[in-house]
Amino acid sequence: MSDSRLLDTHMLHTFVIIAESPSLTDAARRLGVTQSAVSQCLKQLEDQLGTALVVRRSRPLHLTAAGNALKQNAEGILGELRRLSARVRGAADQGLVHCRLGLITSCSEVFGSKLIAQLSPFIEQMTLRSGLTPPLMQAFLEREIDILVSNDPLTGVDGLERFELFRDPMLLAVSTQNLAGLAAPVSVESLARELPMIKYGRHTHIGAYSEVVLRRMGVQANVRYETDDTHTLMNFVHDGHGWAIFSALCLAQALYLTEDVCLLELDRSRHSRTLYLLAREGEMGSIPQQVAGAIRQILQGPVFDALVQRAPWLTIEAFAGSELWSDS
Fold this sequence. Notes:
alpha/beta
């Protein structure tokens, strides 16, 4: 062999079609390419192998001894590659040895345990990583995470499959003690006028989005406390230190802290963030879609049932994204 490089599988496939065709013109037609492209591929193979593979000027086309040997072995190699692809796809569909899942903290606390229980039949081992969106996104881009659930769809990154999971409507929270001193009807404007605000930190997505909501509504709030932690925020509200904007998913995180806390609808539930599931295209078969379906199913079942006990104005339609859970 005049060239030590491994043979290209595309070139092998092209050669098998050439060997099964009466002419290069017919091979080109079957492959959907030009005759020039077929001739060039044949020449590259012959140059790489250092021997002629077809008998020139013969009609119909005939293979040399070397060409016959290549055709027989190429068919076996290509067949094995097809079987390998099928086995890999089957493994992705039937179960992974190890799936690394990244969830923003609110999703991890609300869905994590139930999600593992639902996925265990087809995923043998799962690593669950939680935290804020920026470090999780970085871990996903560096391939330390296989599937990411976050509020950023990474639209600037190619080669990803994206599932819109659900809308997460924004709510208001104020202690019943503080509420008693406010004139009815209570609104975000009256809360901002009368009480300090407890807010998520501006470097968090929900903190930044809260600022957007206030600007949209033309409300100026006196922000006295900032925190990145939902439980700390709800404790501050519970103890009467101020009011807060947070989301339904964050409420599900901290339901046990909402005794003596009044939950109010914000602007008729017009404001919400959206949660997405991201995975790399073609790497995990149907598993990303199964994970997305499991999350939606948990939300529509036990999570929603618990939320409406404390926030009865919430409807399941408030959580429906553009896909309307059609593949759940």
